[in-house]
Sequence to fold (367 residues):
Amino acid sequence: MKVKKKDGHIGGFEAFCLCNYLIYVKMFLAMPRHLIDEAGPVAWAVPLIVLVFTLVFFYILTSLLKMFEGLSFLEIAGLLWGTWAQWLLGFLFAAFFVLIIGLQLRIIGEFLLSTLLPHTPLSAVLFIMVGTFIYLAYFGIENLARLAGLLFPWLLVAFMVTFLLAMQRGDFYNFAPWLGYGEWRLLVSSVNHIGIYKEIILLAFIAPLFRNHQTLQQAGYTSLITLTFFFAFAQAVYIYVFPVHTGAELGFPLFQLTRLIYYGTFLQRLDPLFMFVWASISIIGMAAGFYVSALSLAQGAKASDYRPYLFPLAIIVLTIAFFHETSLEAVKAYRTFPAYLAIPIFGLPFLLWLWALLFHRQRRQRR
Fold:
């Protein structure tokens, strides 16, 4: 089954950009505050520790995809476990992405209201953003990936410059004690955030669009290494500027960094630049997740086109976004649910890979 009619192929750089956008979104929400609250001054090491586990997972995932080159993860599940498993997993993964996007949408909407649009109704902001998701996802992954690739170099430069400028008021002493609250707390924090890069599974759903398996592997590994660098870098800058007790209390932590930039008369208040970078990454990243949720349903049902699922999923995303009365409740839910979602997102591909090793090879040998 093709991913979509006339969907063409996706290049390694475009896939790399999409993975980065999809995972970067959480960096701009509350994650830096959560990490510093749990791990203290050594919170910058959490993304590095999580990388080791994620590399093992991605190796298993790519090994599975290589066994059945040309098939997506859900198609492999249908081949090994039957049609019922393909349908069930398609529904589950769609629900995972919809839940994450709905919570992210609410938090981002509240952020826009508190910073740029204080007199605009929340519903107007959320409806416009969801409409943008539908528009971007409707024209397929190829156009979405090209947009991501076109903007990525400029957003990368703006990201680096903004955070380097924010380091003017930092203090290296904020990194002490060097082991934070101890090795055990660091390990616990790493386990709690084991799913930082779980959205890398995006590549498993669009695997048939790659010209060869090697391109998929390169896109995944380079994405994980790049993401780890920027997560650790952003966390280190945040700790360097804000002491632990202050950093654990700030809302929208990385945005607070940009508000400190002041270099004389002509270089100050660069937070509008940060807003553009943050909004661009968030909208494209969430649109990619929205696309994957529709694609997951289509592949699970063996449908030839994912687009009929976009509008119903948009209604569900809006329902989740409006479910919580306050943004604080949405932030608490967003801190809790993704940690649990990492278990099936990592566990199901591992079980499928194990099943393929133990039983599928034996079946082929008998034949």
